[in-house]
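We examine the record.

___
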Amino acid sequence: MARIGVIGAGYVGLTTAACFAHLGHRVVCADVDEGKVTALRRAEIGAHEPRLAELVAEGLRTGRLAFTTDNGEALADAEFVYLCLPTPTGENGEADLSAVHAVLGDAEPDGCVLVVKSTVPIGTSDDIARSQRVPVVSNPEFLREGHAVDDFLRPQRIVVGADDESAARSVLALYPEAPALVTDRASAELVKYASNCFLAMKLSYVNSLAELCEQAGADIGDVTEGMRLDERIGAAFLRPGPGWGGSCFPKDTRALLSTSDGAHVDFPLLRATIDTNERQARRVVEKVREAAGPLAGTRIGLLGLTFKAGTDDLRDSPALAVAGLLADEGAVLTGYDPCVTADTGPVHVAETALDAAHDASALVVLTEWPEFAELDWPAVAAGMSRPVIVDTRNLLPADKVTESGIRLVSTGRAAD
């Protein structure tokens, strides 16, 4: 089995390190955050990700996984070094590569294959290769939050980009068997951006369709069901919502647009994808205002604060974008989320969904946690000052909700 160094113990780096150790490789994972490393040595991962804590504990117990604050320790004797560093959005929308450059400036890999797993602009791995004495491979990650371990251990595809066929094949051999693409580094980098931006485009498209359905008297559920039956379109990412967010889609769409602008390539479809998404929060607020009346001093309950169900991630959450706009109009916000316990921005976080609904003039479903569909609707209605729910996800059972005396405002369906 291989000796692997992983630089960065964030969401991608930690999953990569723990899963490689589970597959039998020996892994040293480095991170500059001393507090995080200390917690990881106790198998405390600080994130809601199914099975990840178990794999970290397993790796520590077997001795196949170790954590350090010293990048040199992760590089020492490693056959493969994975760069799993953050690339947040810069001032002009471009990806900020300062963390990547800082690591490569501090310690130069030697005698290994350097694998760039961070999401980086097209051409970055080629730039790195020109400054290194080791083979450089682009190996983008395709890990969904809430499903990261399963995605790593049972990947839909593995993409490897390199100008060294032997290095590419050696990286590919580390993974479980899966459909694989071996290509050049620039193409591998673009696969990641192209995939995320295409999914974001589908979500923006279906949200625009939902708006049209509301005006035309159509039903978005039936429209998307008809679309799903076409195998060329597929079923995924065809549910309307309050917008897309999280750690990847917002920064990746902006980064690809920045790259396109820099290459003098007009990409109006991607620009419209971003613009459409930025309108979604305002559309939700309009619906809440119509349902609850003037928002100044009005109590509004929020169900869901994370950017999607199955994670505790609040980064670029559309739920928080909606909350911010509601607060700007003077609404008093109480929210509930299974993975959020502390007050977040303008939202006071309640202990239960019923507490969030108590005395509210409107209840807004913003994150698609399955448990929200199973609430005690008579109890919800009894606790609200005005029994009306704005369901941005079309998650709730309409018949049970309305039978309880609650007015339900859905998405992509004609108003009551």
